[in-house]
Amino acid sequence: MANMYADCGFLVEARQVFNEMPERNSVTWNALITSIIRRGELGLAHALFDRLPNQNVVSWTDIIDGYARMNQHEVTLSVFWTMVGKDAYSKCGCMESVVKVFGFMDAKKKNLVSWTSIISGFAMHGMRKQAVHSFKSMENKCLKQNRVTFLSILSACSHGWLVEEGHEFFRKMVNECLVEPKIKHYECLIDMLGKVGRLEDGFADFS
C-alpha cells in the first residue's frame, strides 16, 4: 500500500502508511525506497535508506542507481565509497552505474577518493584488468596513490592471478611511493606468490 501511494506521487500518504505498519521488513523498506526514487525524490529516499536496519544489495543498488540516473555524479561516488567502507559492496550490482558516472565526471573532480573507489569496486567484482587499467590511468594523472589504493590493486591482482603485475605494484608502493605496507598488503603478496609456488621471491620484500 505504501509503495502504491508513492508510485502515484502521494509521498506524504506513503510515509504515513509506512510508519503505521506494525511490521516492516527489507522487502517493504526497499519497495518504498524504490518507488520514491522513481518519483525523483532522492533526498527522501536517502533519508529512508539511512533508517533501513539491514541495508542489502537491493537497497544499495537502488540508491546508487537513483543518484546516477539524476546525474548527481559526486553524490553517487560518495555513496559508493560509503558502501566500500562498510564492506557491503561485494554483491552489489551497481558497478555499471558507478563506472558510467565516473566516466561523465569532470576530470578535475576525479580525486584520490573517487579513483580509489572505482579501483576497489573493480577489485571486489573480479574485474582485475579494469582495476589495473584504472590504477595506471590514475598514475598518468599524476595522482599519488595511498595505502588503500595499493591494497585495492593488490587484492585485484591476487584474486585475478596477476602475479607479475601484483609483485611490481608492491615494489612500486614500497620503493617509489614510500608507502609502508601493512599486514593486509603482505597477505596479498603472499597469496599471489603462493599460488604459483614462488614464495621465495617475496622474501626480499619482507626485509
Automatic annotation (TrEMBL):
Gene3D superfamilies, alphabetized: Tetratricopeptide repeat domain
InterPro entries referenced in this protein's UniProt entry, alphabetically: PPR_At4g14850-like_plant, PPR_rpt, TPR-like_helical_dom_sf
Pfam families: PPR, PPR_3
PPR repeat residues: 25-59, 111-145
Entry keyword set: Repeat
Keyword Repeat: yes
Any one GO biological process: plant organ development
Gene Ontology terms for molecular function: RNA binding
Keyword field contains Protein transport: no
Transmembrane segments: none
Protein's name according to its UniProt entry: Pentatricopeptide repeat-containing protein
